[in-house]
Design goal:
Domain HTH gntR-type: 87-142
Keywords: DNA-binding, Transcription, Transcription regulation
Protein name: Transcriptional regulator, GntR family protein
Number of domains: 3
Order of helices and strands: HHHEEHHHEEHHHHHH
Helix content: 55-70%
Shape: globular
CATH class of the largest domain: Mainly Alpha
Domain GntR C-terminal: 156-268
CATH topology of the largest domain: Four Helix Bundle (Hemerythrin (Met), subunit A)
Largest sheet: 2 strands, antiparallel
Number of helices: 12
CATH superfamily of the largest domain: GntR ligand-binding domain-like
Number of strands: 4
Strand order of the largest sheet: 1-2
GO molecular function: DNA binding; DNA-binding transcription factor activity
Strand content: under 5%
């Protein structure tokens, strides 16, 4: 079963069972839900439109069909353990950060994770679609080489494009959505900080700027995974959540200048954390 088939299968079950779906329902948001690029999601959407589970209006927007007509699909395969993907992805990221772009030894890597080479190839194929690894015909898989300058370059472009997206939609921001994301960044009842990162994707998607969206679809998943790996200390989580709150509260008050200023600071604040992790990983490899 291909990746697009798996996505179509999962969405068909969710739609027919009236389970929750990303809001707003879009290619970008579904891609984030499955942690994949936009391409297999587009293919899955086309399949489900043909089957009647999704409908496309005159403007091209796609939404679940209220009638939810479910055609017979192949028997659903048992889902592979999600934690396996996380472990393989972290292994690949650490190789990238360590500057190791040598080809993986499939047999040894499969043994490391206690899986068959077929299962390993499944997850490596998914990670290749997200930009974590590269598959070279007749040679195998190798990690994406991450250079220290890449972090600065990505952050510069991300900051510019995300601010551009926010400026283009600030008069169309939905207060209810902002308040919902704000609540997701408030500490839990026991005082433990939590993060709701949806604010970034919200205005990127709302911008309807395909060039901005394409940049984040191509490069966002890989770098977001690196940032997440670097943000494990409770103090860092708390700081990021607080910055989210200030950004969202400023937007609700229509204080655009403050929102943009804190957003820039928030994006830049992640750089030293990654640099610290990068130095630690590379020192361990010496």
């Amino acid at each position: 079963m291909s990746l697009s088939d798996r996505i179509a299968e999962e969405l068909s079950v969710r739609i027919s069972a009236r389970e929750s779906l990303p809001e707003p329902f879009s290619i970008a948001n579904v891609a984030r839900m499955f942690d994949v690029s936009a391409s297999p999601v587009r293919t899955a959407f086309d399949q489900l439109v043909e089957e009647g589970l999704l409908i496309r209006d005159d403007t091209g927007r796609i939404a679940p069909n209220p009638a939810r007509r479910l055609k017979r699909r192949p028997k659903r395969e048992k889902a592979l353990e999600p934690s396996l993907e996380i472990r393989i992805r972290e292994f690949i990221i650490r190789r990238s950060l360590a500057g190791d772009d040598s080809f993986l030894r499939e047999e040894a890597t499969a043994e490391r994770f206690g899986v068959s080479r077929t299962v390993l190839r499944h997850w490596l194929g998914k990670l290749a679609g997200q930009g974590f690894v590269e598959h070279v015909q007749r040679r195998g898989w190798r990690s994406r080489l991450f250079l220290p300058k890449d972090l600065e370059h990505y952050s510069e472009v991300r900051e510019m494009l995300e601010l551009m997206a926010l400026r283009s939609v600030r008069d169309r921001l939905d207060a209810t959505m902002l308040e919902e994301i704000l609540a997701g960044n408030q500490p839990l009842s026991e005082g433990k900080p939590q993060i709701d990162n949806r604010l970034h994707g919200y205005w990127i998607e709302l911008s309807e700027n395909h060039y901005i969206q394409d940049f984040f679809e191509r490069h966002g998943v890989f770098h977001a995974a690196i940032f997440d790996l670097a943000t494990t200390e409770m103090s860092a989580v708390e700081e990021m959540a607080e910055q989210h709150c200030v950004i969202l509260e400023s937007l609700l008050k229509r204080n655009w200048k403050q929102a943009e200023s804190v957003l820039s600071k928030h994006i830049r604040a992640q750089i030293p954390r990654v640099e610290k992790m990068l130095a630690q990983i590379r020192s361990e490899g010496k």
